[in-house]
Design brief:
Elements lengths: L1 E8 L1 H5 L3 H20 L3 E6 L7 E6 L2 E6 L8 E9 L3 H8 L8 E7 L16
Antiparallel strand pairs: 1-5, 1-6, 2-5, 3-4
């Protein structure tokens, strides 16, 4: 089953890291992806640029509006994601616990669902 691991941390804390600390963390992330890939658990993923580069898009009455920044102010910001293959939620949680930025923030693990042409549960509550 596919699980999305959303990586969050406080950008203000991360901005205070030295270049050496930042490079070291990024090298850990590269090594983590290599291990997850070798074990067959890594599907895809990517770090994200800071929320200052984000735009939020809404469609209301068939009109598109875009505003600068993320949708909501939060203590931790979305920093990246890993799409993982795991046998169950427990394995997905164990894998997410190996993602290096979890030490500085959190990793939200959520099962992915298949989008079907018909028969999807309202609100995505398939299970």
């Amino acid at each position: 089953m596919k699980y999305l691991a959303l990586v969050y941390y406080d950008e203000k804390i991360m901005e205070r890291k030295s270049q050496e600390e930042w490079d070291s963390l990024n090298q850990e992330c590269i090594e983590c992806v290599a291990r997850l890939s070798e074990s067959g658990h890594y599907i895809t993923g990517s770090p994200l640029l800071p929320t200052s580069t984000a735009s939020t898009v809404r469609v209301r009455d068939n009109r598109i509006t875009a505003t600068d920044g993320p949708f909501a102010e939060t203590k931790e910001q979305l920093a990246g994601f890993y799409m993982l293959e795991a046998k169950d939620l427990n394995e997905a949680i164990a894998l997410a616990g190996k993602i290096p930025p979890a030490r500085y923030g959190s990793v939200e693990v959520r099962p992915a669902r298949e989008l079907m042409e018909k028969g999807n549960q309202a609100g995505g509550n398939a299970g």
